[in-house]
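Q: What does the assembly look like in three dimensions?
Context provided by user:
Components: two
Sequences:
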Amino acid sequence: MKLPEASNFIEQIINEELAAGKFEKRGNKLQVRFPPEPNGYPHIGHIKAMCINFGVKEKYGAKLNLRMDDTNPAKEDYEYVNSLVDACKWLGFEFDQLVFASDYYDKLYEIAEKYIIDGNAYVCDLSAEEITATRGTLTEAGTPSPYRERSVEENLRLFREMKAGKYLDGAKTLRAKIDMTSPNINMRDPIIYRIAHVSHYRTGDKWCIYPMYDFAHPVSDAIEGITHSLCSLEFENHRPLYNWFVEKAGFEAPLPRQIEFARLNITNMLMSKRYLKKLVDEKIVSGWDDPRMPTVAGLKNRGVPPEALKKFCADIGVAKAYSVVSQAQLDSCIRDNLNENAERAMAVLNPVKLTVTNYVGEEELSFEKNPMKADGATRDIKFTGTVYIDRDDFSLNPPPKYKRLYKGGTVRLKSAYIVRCDDVKLNNEGEVEEILCTYFPETKSGSDKPSEVKAKGVVQWVDAKYGKQVVFKQYQPLLKDEEYADQDYAERLNLDSEKSFNGIAEPYLAESEDGKPFQLMRTGYYKKSSANGFTLSEIVSLKDSFNK
RNA sequence: UGGGGUGUCGCCAAGCGGUAAGGCAACGGACUCUGACUCCGUCAUUCGUUGGUUCAAAUCCAGCUACCCCAGCCA
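A: Here is the predicted structure of the complete assembly.
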C-alpha cells in the first residue's frame, strides 16, 4: 500500500496504523469527523480543527461527517448549526454528511441500558453537591456512592423512570461504575445521563434525560465508524474514559482512536466563546459577523480570503505543545493572498486638494487592475488636473529620505504624471489647504521616452471631479477590557491594553452597489520602525472604489 | 502533595541514534509607477537542565526543573 507523506504527527500515526494493517478489515477506509457543539459561531480556532480533519479526508480519501455535538439542550440552536455549515461551505470544505448527536439519542439510551445490565452503570441519588463532595480531590481518592451497589433490576427500573419523567432535574443521575479511587478524576464514576426537563432544539420535549459529552462523544464516534477522533489537548485526560465507554458498549475493532492536538492561540486575539458571546450580547460589536470578530463570519466580512486561512493553518502546523502564534503570521498569509488576487483601486482616506496649475482639460488614463496578474487588464480612470491626495503623502517639513511630496519636490501621481509642488496654501490653523503643482506632460504614465524629470515617490490620488466619495464606516478598535477579557488568558496572549486586539486597528469599510469587494492597499509608511510594509489594518475590503 | 501532557532561534515548527529543514518576524543589499511586491544575503556549534549509555545523542536511559490540563448533573 502506498502511504501519503505525513505532514504532521497525526498523519504519522495514521500511516503507522495503516502500515500495520489496522484497518484492513474495513478496506483501509478511514473516517473522521468535525464535531462542534452548536452553541456559538465558529472562529479561527475551529478552522484549524477543520483543516486537520478535512486534511485527513483529502489525503486519505477518508469519510468526514460534520457532527453537531448537541447533547446540552440549554445552549444549542439552529442559528449555530447554520453558522457551522456556512463556515464549511465558505472554506470550501465538503463533508459527507451532516449528522447530530441528537440523532443517536435512542441508540445512546439503549447502550446506557446495556451498561446497566452488564453491571457497568448505576442510578445515583446523590445531589450535585454530594457528588462533588464524594469525588475526592486531586490528591485524595473519592468515596463510593451509597447507591453504587443497587441491583441491575432496580437500576433498570429507576433509569426507565428517569426517562419517563418521574423525577425532578438533579434528583438522580446515571453513573458509570468505574473506580472512585482512580488518580484520573474523570474515571471516578462519571455521570452518563442527567435529568433536564428542557426542550431540545431538535428533539423537542421527547427527552428529559440527556447524555453527557464523555459518553455521547465516544459512542457517537463508534456508531458512525469513526477511525480517528481528533480533538484538542484538554481532552487528553478523558481518553481512558473514551476508551472505556466504547469498549463497554461492545463495539468491534477497529475501535475509534482519540488523538489530541494543541488548540490555536493567536497573539492579540481573544477567541473564547464566552467572551465573544458577551461582545455580541452586550452589543459591543454589531454581531457575530462584525469584522473585528475572529469568527469565520467576521473574517469573511472583513475580506479575508478562505484560502489565506487554510494557508495559515498549513503553515503553523499541528503539534501538542502549547503555543501562541504571532498575529503577524496570519497577516502575512492574508497579505500574500490579497497581493496575488486582489484588484487594485486608488483611494485617499484623509484627503487634501492638489491642483495642477498648468493642466487644462481632462483625459482618460489606464490603471492596472492587478499588477500581479500577467493579463494586463486595466480600467480607465479620469484625470482633470485637480485631485485629492492623502495628507500623509505631503509634508511641510520633510524628514531625510522622504519619498513623497513636499514644497519644491516631485512625486508621481500613480498612473498619471510626475508633478512638482510649487506652493502650498495654508488655512488659519496653519494646516495645508491646497497644494499647487506643475505637471510634466512627457512623464505621462506608460510613455517609453525617458524623461529628464525624476520622482522618487509614487502617491495615490482621486480625481476631484470624477472620484467617488464614499462614506467609510470606521470601527472603533476593540480594546482590552477587564470586563470582557479573561485576564489570565489575555495575559498569555501578550495583550497590551494600549493596543487594539482581535486583529483590527482601524478598519474602514464601505458598501457598494454591486457588492464586489476591492482591496485597498496603502503605500508603506515612511517610518520603517512602525511597519515596514502594510499591516492587516491597511488592507481592507473596499466595497466600493474611487475612480472606478 | 495525585494523575495526564509539553519543553528545538523573538513566534510557529521539522527532526524519530549519524552530526540542527521550513515559515513568520528581524537585519543588510538590489530592483520598483504602490517606501509594497520580487530578488539576493544574514539570522540555533546548539536542542529546559544535570548526569549516563554509545565511535556518535535534540533523538536512548535516569534525576531535576518549568509550563499546561483535570475535582461541571458544560463541551
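Follow-up: The longest strand of chain A covers residues 418-426.
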